Amino acid sequence: MDAIRHGSPGDPNPLRRLSPDELRRRTSMKWRAYPDDVLPLWVAEMDVPLAEPVARAITDAVALGDTGYPFGTGYAEALAEFAQKRWGWDGPAPERTAIVPDVMLGIVEVLKAISGPGDPVVVNCPVYPPFYPFVEHMDRRIVEAPLGGDLRIDPAGLENAFRAATADGGRAAYLLCSPHNPTGTVHTHGELAAVAALADRYGVRVVVDEIHAPVVASGTAFVPYLSVPGTESGLSLMSASKAWNLAGLKAALAVAGPAAADDLARIPEEVSHGPSHLGVIAHTAALRNGTEWLDAVLAGLDQNRRLLAGLLAEHLPGVRYRPAEGTYLAWLDCRSLGLGDDPAEVFLERGRVALNSGKTFGTGGAGHVRLNLATSPETITEAVRRMTAAAA
């Protein structure tokens, strides 16, 4: 495989601006969990410099000593503005939002508000691994509704799960991942309308993780769940963290449909103390002033999806990969390679490339790996070279 030269610091593609040496100086999880000889393409961190409007907002706050407690509705207002401009949606009214530390902790608080101990929570597996421990640690039980063979929501399977979840009269919830992690599926308006109809029929409350909402491929439209008719009792969790690489700057928003405002109001006031004030500043700046940077990242991700598809077709044709409509993640079906249920372990040990093990994503994940595309083309090329050698 031919090497791809890294871009310069002025490269318009943010995914090509940082050299491997610069990235290795980072101290976050992605760069410290494995030895230096391992190429890390696992956890959802992007290999990008911070968007300039975000960096400026943070440094201005630090210069002022503005490092106290978060206050006000600026973050919610910025999300509302972004949603209207990006998705043509006027739904996230600030008065129906609550600030939470991050999306997963927000999900926990919302589920506490609408369900009780022992109640079922339906998920579409394979799905983001933290869904399982977070739900189980709050004494709720998981009910799986596997995705269909096309990696989309299977209406019949979802109905069966709803029927099972509500059979004993408990307060059932459905934790929907949209766009879906790890497959990158972006649910259509029709699919979400069908979800809402099923939820209404069975009395299931829908909670949506929309953390990857701004990250969609060219030509794909993200549809906010709460923008679909019939979703008035739904609740959504949103954040700028994935799209602008702000996971270390904690802040997210819970958004309620018109009929769920009272549920949101039951979230304890002290939960709002958890987000970082600098995080709120950063997320607000990203949503208001970071769209040009985001568009450059999205263009780079489109290129990386095409690159990965071509490299796999040429060098690892046994791997099934469908370029995703959303997220910066690639879900790779490696079952035909003969590497067992956990090919990520083989790629790590033999190829020194770290990917997420599909086994952790629940039923349907065995034999798969998740690869993080939010990096340079050169890194993706090197990763496929190492994976090819490991599978030989």
Q: What does this protein structure show overall?
A:
This protein is α/β, with parallel strands linked by helices and 392 residues long. It is 38% helix and 12% strand. The protein has 13 helices and 13 strands. It has helices at residues 20-24, 29-32, 52-64, 74-87, 103-114, 131-137, 155-165, 189-202, 261-265, 277-289, 291-315, 343-351, 377-391; strands at 39-40, 97-100, 120-123, 141-144, 173-177, 205-209, 235-238, 252-256, 320-321, 329-333, 353-354, 356-357, 368-372. The strands form three sheets. Strands 2-8-7-6-5-3-4 form a seven-stranded mixed beta sheet, sandwiched between helices. A hairpin with a 7-residue loop joins strand 9 and strand 10. Helix 4 packs parallel to helix 10 (277-289), helix 7 (155-165) packs parallel to helix 8 (189-202) and helix 11 packs parallel to helix 13. The longest helix is centred in the C-terminal third of the chain and has 25 residues, at 291-315.
Question: Layout of helices and strands, plus pairs?
Answer:
Layout: H1 20-24, H2 29-32, E1 39-40, H3 52-64, H4 74-87, E2 97-100, H5 103-114, E3 120-123, H6 131-137, E4 141-144, H7 155-165, E5 173-177, H8 189-202, E6 205-209, E7 235-238, E8 252-256, H9 261-265, H10 277-289, H11 291-315, E9 320-321, E10 329-333, H12 343-351, E11 353-354, E12 356-357, E13 368-372, H13 377-391
Parallel strand pairs: 1-11, 3-4, 3-5, 5-6, 6-7
Antiparallel strand pairs: 2-8, 7-8, 9-10, 10-13, 12-13
Helix pairs in contact: 3-10, 4-10, 7-8, 11-13, 12-13
